[in-house]
Write a structure and sequence with these properties.
By secondary structure, the protein is of the alpha/beta class. The protein has a domain at 222-443: Rossmann fold, CATH 3.40.50.1100. 45% of the residues lie in helices and 16% in strands. It has helices spanning 15-21, 41-44, 52-64, 70-80, 108-122, 139-148, 167-174, 189-200, 203-208, 219-222, 225-244, 261-271, 288-295, 319-325, 328-334, 342-356, 362-384, 406-410, 428-435, 443-449, 462-472; strands at 3-5, 8-13, 31-33, 87-91, 94-98, 130-135, 154-161, 180-185, 210-212, 250-256, 278-283, 335-339, 394-396, 414-420, 456-458. The strands form three sheets. The protein has a seven-stranded mixed beta sheet with strand order 4-5-14-10-11-12-13, with helices on both faces. Helix 3 (52-64) crosses helix 4 and helix 11 packs across helix 12 (261-271). It binds pyridoxal-5'-phosphate. Pyridoxal-5'-phosphate is lined by residues 106, 108, 139, 256-262, 310-311, 363, 421-422. Pyridoxal-5'-phosphate (PLP) binds next to helix 12.
Length: 473
C-alpha cells in the first residue's frame, strides 16, 4: 500500500516511511492510504463473526502490504491485543462498544500499541536506539508510555505539566521504569510541547540522537482503530434482531470526539465494509466539527476546559484527514453533529445509570445523550424544520443538513453503537457527583496507585532540557 499526503496528492510513500516520518516534512500534511478496499464479502459475512484477531490481521494486511511478512504481522497483532473490544447491550437498541480493556483503560491503547510494535519492527536493523519524545496533557502520555514499555531498541521520554493533570493520570505516567521515563515540567502543557518541538528542530541534537514523536497524527495509530468498528458492528448485526426485534436494523456509530482520530478510523472501517449506516460526531463544548456540519464554516478556536477533558480540542488535527476523504456535502450525508455541556454530561451519566444500570464515563456519556436524543425524536425535529435553538446543546442541523439515515431513525429502525472511550473509574469524582458513588477500580488501575513515583523535575527552560537529554539519552 502506498500513502499520500493530505496537502499534496502527488506524494507517494511506503507504509514504513509514513509511520517513521509521522507527517510529511515538506508540506506538514498528514498521510492517508491511497486506496481503501472493501473486505471480501465471504469474510464480512462469515458465521460465526470473525475474531478480533482475524479482523485485525485482515485489515492490517491491506495497509501494510508486503512490507511486513504475514507471520511477523500476526505476531505483532497477537502481542498488541491480549484484550479486545466487547460490546455490551444496555437496552434493546443500545450497545456500548467498550474500548477500555487495554492496559491504560482508554481507547488510545489500540492505536499506540500497534504503532509501537510497527516502529520497533522497522527499527530492528538500526544499531542506535530510537528516542521518542512526547508532551502530554494527560491521557496520551500513559498510552504511549505503556505501549512502548519493554519494546526493544526504543525509549520514551514523557513531559507533563507538574500539578496540572489528575493524580491518577500522574501515577499512570510517572511509575514506569526501564525504557520509559517522565519529566514533570514546571510549566503548562504548551511549555512541554514547546520543549519537545524545540528539541526536534535542534540540528546539533538531531545529529547526535535519533529522535521521533509518537503523536496522534501518526497513521499507525489510526489504522488499528478501524479493527474495533468492524468487529463491533459485525457482532451487533449478528444479534440485534434478537435484542431489538427490528429486522435488518441500521447501525449508527456514536463517537465521542476531540481530535477526530477515532471518527476518521470509523469512516475507514465503513469503506472497508463495516455495516455502519452513519455516524454521530459527539463533542463537549468544543464543538468546532458539529458547527461545521451545521453551518458549513470550519472555524477552529481555542479549546475550553470541560469534564470530558480528553476531548478538549478546538482545532482537531484529524479534520484534515476527514475532509480529504469526504467533502462537506458527503460528510453531511453520513454524519450528524451533536454537542453537550458539562451540566448535560453529568445528567447523562445519571440517566444512563438510572435507566440501564450501566456506569458510563463522561466521554461516553455524551455519546449516550446523543443517541438517546436521536432515538427519541431529535431527528424528527430536524426533518420537521424545528431547529435546535441557537447556542443550545443538542443535535445540530436542519432538514437540509440532516444525514440520509435521519428518516430511518424516525421509523425506529436503527440501533446505536456508543463508543465508550475510557473506563469510568478514570473519572471517579465526576461519576460520584452524578450517581452518588464511584465505579470500582479495575485491578490494573488500582495497582499503579501503589507504585513509587519515578518522575524527575524539569524547568521549562530549553537549555536545561537539552542538557538532560545529552546526559540521559
Ligand atoms: C483521546 C480521547 C478521546 C478523543 O478521541 P479523538 O480520536 O481525539 O477524537 C475521547 N475519549 C477519551 C477517553 C480519550 O482519551
Amino acid at each position: 500500500m502506498r500513502y499520500r499526503d493530505t496537502r499534496n496528492a502527488e506524494t507517494n510513500v511506503s507504509f514504513e516511511t509514513a509511520v517513521m516520518q509521522g507527517m510529511d516534512p515538506q508540506t506538514g500534511g498528514l498521510y492517508i492510504p491511497e486506496t481503501i478496499t472493501r473486505l471480501p464479502s465471504s469474510f464480512l459475512n462469515r458465521n460465526p463473526v470473525p475474531s478480533f484477531r482475524d479482523i485485525a490481521f485482515e485489515v492490517a494486511k491491506q495497509f501494510v502490504g508486503d512490507e511486513i511478512p504475514d507471520d511477523e504481522l500476526m505476531a505483532i497483532i497477537v502481542d498488541c491485543y491480549p484484550f479486545t473490544a466487547p460490546i455490551t447491550p444496555i437496552d434493546p437498541t443500545t450497545y456500548v462498544l467498550e474500548l477500555y480493556h487495554g492496559p491504560t483503560c482508554a481507547f488510545k491503547d489500540f492505536g499506540a500499541r500497534f504503532m509501537a510494535r510497527v516502529m520497533a519492527y522497522f527499527n530492528r536493523k538500526e544499531s542506535n536506539p530510537l528516542h521518542i519524545l512526547v508532551a502530554t496533557s494527560g491521557d496520551t502520555g500513559s498510552a504511549v508510555g505503556s505501549a512502548f514499555y519493554g519494546v526493544p531498541g526504543i525509549d520514551v521520554t514523557i513531559l507533563y505539566p507538574d500539578g496540572k493533570i489528575s493524580p491518577l493520570q500522574e501515577k499512570q505516567l510517572s511509575t514506569f521504569d526501564g525504557n520509559v521515563r517522565s519529566l514533570r515540567v514546571n510549566g503548562t502543557f504548551d511549555d512541554c510541547q514547546k520543549l519537545v518541538k524545540t528539541a526536534f528542530t535542534d540540528s546539533t541534537l538531531r545529529n547526535r540522537f535519533r529522535l521521533s514523536s509518537a503523536n496522534s497524527i501518526n497513521i499507525a495509530r489510526l489504522l488499528p482503530q478501524s479493527f474495533y468498528y468492524i468487529y463491533g458492528s459485525l457482532l451487533i448485526r449478528d444479534r440485534c434482531h434478537f435484542d431489538s426485534k427490528i429486522d435488518c436494523a441500521q447501525i449508527i456509530a456514536v463517537v465521542p470526539s476531540g481530535n477526530f482520530g477515532n471518527l476518521t478510523s470509523g469512516l475507514m472501517a465503513r469503506q472497508m465494509g463495516a455495516p455502519i449506516e452513519g455516524f454521530v460526531a459527539a463533542t463537549n463544548s468544543n464543538r468546532t466539527v458539529p458547527d461545521w456540519l451545521n453551518n458549513g464554516e470550519y472555524r477552529p478556536r481555542p479549546s475550553v476546559e470541560t469534564l470530558s477533558n480528553a476531548m478538549d480540542v478546538g482545532a482537531p488535527s484529524n479534520f484534515e484527514r476527514m475532509s480529504a476523504f469526504y467533502s462537506l456535502e458527503e460528510s453531511r450525508k453520513i454524519m450528524a453533529g451533536y454537542w453537550l455541556d458539562d451540566a448535560g454530561t453529568k445528567d447523562a451519566i445519571r440517566s444512563c445509570h438510572d435507566r440501564t444500570g450501566y456506569i458510563i464515563d463522561p466521554h461516553g456519556a455524551i455519546g449516550w445523550a446523543a443517541w438517546d436524543s436521536i432515538r427519541s425524536g431529535a431527528m424528527e425535529q430536524l426533518l420537521d424544520g424545528s431547529k435546535n435553538p441557537e447556542g443550545m446543546p443538542g443535535l445540530l442541523g436542519t432538514k437540509k443538513t440532516a444525514p440520509v439515515w435521519a428518516k430511518n431513525c424516525v421509523g425506529k429502525s436503527c440501533v446505536g453503537m456508543i463508543l465508550e472511550t475510557a473506563h469510568p473509574a478514570k473519572f471517579g469524582e465526576t461519576v460520584r457527583e452524578s450517581i452518588g458513588r464511584e465505579p470500582s477500580m479495575p485491578e490494573r488501575l488500582e495497582r499503579v496507585l501503589s507504585l513509587p513515583d519515578r518522575s524527575q523535575p524539569m524547568s521549562s527552560d530549553y537549555a536545561e532540557f537539552r542538557s538532560w537529554l545529552e546526559k540521559n539519552l
